[in-house]
Amino acid sequence: MCRLIACCLLLAGAALATEPRDLVLVRSATRADARAVEAAGALVDFVSAEGIVAEATEQVQASLRAAGFAVEPLVPGISDRYEANFNSGLEFGQYLTYDGFVDSMRAIAANNPGICRLETLGTSFGGRLVLALKFSDNPSVHENEPAVHFEGAIHGDEKIAWAVAFEMVKYLLNNYGTDTLVTRLVNTREIWLLPMYNPDGYVAARRYNGNNVDLNRNWGWMWGGESAQGASAFSEAENRAVLAHIWRNPMVMFISFHAGIEYISFPWSYSPDSIPEKRLINFLSQRYSVPTGYPYGQGYQGMYPINGSTKDFDYGYGMMGWSIEVHAQKTPPASEIDPTFNRNRSAMLEFFHRAGQGIHGTVTDAATGLPVHCQVWVGPANWPSYNHRELGDFHRFYLPGTYSVTFRAPGYLDTTVAGVVVPGSGDSSVTLDVRMTPNESAPLFACRLVWCSYVNETANRTYPVRALGPSDGVPFQLDNTKTICLDMNRPVRNGPGTDLVVYRSSGTGTASVQGANSWQGPWTNIGTANSAQTGFDLGSVGLDSTRFVRLTASGTFYFDAVEGVNFTGIEEGSTNRASRSVPGPSVARGAPRARGRPLSLLDATGRRVLSLPPGQTAPPRLAPGVYFVYGETATPVRRLVIVR
Ligand SMILES: [Zn+2]
């Protein structure tokens, strides 16, 4: 039945934009029916004991009835009622139009440069601005401070979600310098507020963006299997903008406000399994629940199963993530804005505060003192998170206890600090400043997940993060036809012989392997991984380098790891480079170049500067610096220093 509805009701969904919607009860429908009801064009609010509560046009209701569902009216004309509520301006809390919101954000930033900075994260499908305000002292620079992100209206019709996030903007402005708590939090945190995630939907009073995509089904953790999911993971401009934002600014906590019910929903939403650090998310959810009175639980059971949500990706990226449903109505009368904000205010402030609890520090290169962008794995749960690329600082919420923390970066030796104690007193935080040692025998490897296709959540209990890091025999089960896209954190260079190795831990499945230097492509086919260790030569397929690697499975592919040969360890006269059964470059001074072959010149970061055609012995004029010269095959590598 589900499949039938999905096919024949697409047309009905397209008419949603203008037709009024009623609030209805789809009686006796269960969580398992939620996707089918959504596919029919209805907007699912929540699942109750009686059935699914959803918004639907008359046409969609007729289609649901035709498909065998019993549909009962709850609130006729709910969308008209929300529209009237939107226009019900009051002296205090007030809904703003998109233009009014943009003007307000600009004016706020211009008038308060000491504590906030306006960032245009990107533009929507319809060309509108996706605006975030960062609150902090010294807001124009990143400081070693824990970051928190609250956003609203990823579903454009849930306007009370916009209002709660925007009211916090006003609250911080009005209380900084007079309220000691607000002042302390702004001074010691980086607080990101993104009230209008989906401006197209907000303007049209629609759930979807201007491209008819549900932005909360389009994120890259287990993407797919949903209606309105988009052409591919992160296909939507709004989501790419926010992804880039969290890559620049890893958050301790990432909260997405919604409305249509009252509920604190934590990951996973795609799977009935608990997250590895359930104790942490349970604790924080309970803290948010106390002052607000909202119930809390896991999204999969507490709401209904969905793929491609923000909260699942957030946690997959090492951030505590939630969808928090703040009001039973998506757009209640404006008189509800102040009470709803007041209900959430102290819980939001507590989250700002709690972001400073746990394990914090910086990670730098032992040789250069420069920041090292790395994974931070906290044991015993062993779940990865990331530090800030600019300063190398990391911040992880943790409860009092004793932990081990492993820092892992491509081209460095793992650094593990055991016996890390988060104290139960004071500010309940501990600081680790770690220096990592670069090592020429340490391979490059996948550092973070960009996106992966959904898997059968009950048959496949493996996580894509298992494909990160060097080969360890622990695989992510990449199901037949499914894709995973990984970021190696820095480009794997073409060198002599094998540059890239894909490890399969067991089974006979194969995977096509592609490479690109942007995760959005264009992709180049590198070959097929079909054995326990399949090596690839990037040069043989015309690639100079690849930072991103994409695998698509034929049969079940037990994907252990992808490693790149580390060419950054090149040293003059060194021939003892260890390798993980992968041939690396041999190095010698003054070795003759192979006759008739072009030589490549790379700068110190590994970027190819030029190719020297056969016969040319001296490079043209180059800026002062260190360069590496090597041939496309087995030519010895030489280091070239140009000084002027
Ligand atoms: Zn929502």
| Number of strand segments | 33
Portion in beta strands: 25-35%
Low confidence ranges: 1-17, 569-596, 632-637
By CATH, the architecture of the largest domain is named 3-Layer(aba) Sandwich
Quick one: CATH superfamily of the largest domain? Answer: Zn peptidases
Rounded mean pLDDT score: 88
List cofactors, ions and other ligands: zinc ion
- For the terminal residues, how far apart are their CA atoms? 75 Å
Helix count from the secondary structure assignment: 14
CATH class of the largest domain: Alpha Beta
Side-by-side strand order of the widest sheet: 5-6-8-7-9-12-10-11
Q: What proportion of the residues is helical, as a percent range?
A: 10-25%
Shape: globular
Largest sheet: 8 strands, mixed
Keywords:
5 domains, Immunoglobulin-like, five-stranded antiparallel beta sheet, Alpha-Beta Plaits, single chain, 644 residues, disordered N terminus, alpha+beta, eight-stranded mixed beta sheet, binds zinc ion, Aminopeptidase
Describe the overall structure.
With 644 residues, the protein is an alpha+beta fold. The protein has 5 domains: 2-76, Alpha-Beta Plaits, CATH 3.30.70; 84-354, Zn peptidases (Aminopeptidase); 359-436, Immunoglobulin-like (Sandwich), CATH 2.60.40; 444-567, Galactose-binding domain-like (Jelly Rolls), CATH 2.60.120.260; 588-644, no CATH class. The protein is 21% helix and 31% strand. The chain is built from 14 helices and 33 strands. The strands form 7 sheets. Strands 5-6-8-7-9-12-10-11 form an 8-stranded mixed beta sheet, with helices on both faces. Strands 20, 22, 24, 27 and 29 form a 5-stranded antiparallel beta sheet that branches. Helix 7 (159-175) crosses helix 14 and helix 11 runs antiparallel to helix 14 (337-354). Residues 1-17, 569-596 and 632-637 have low confidence and may be disordered. The structure holds zinc ion. Zinc ion is lined by residues 155, 158, 258.
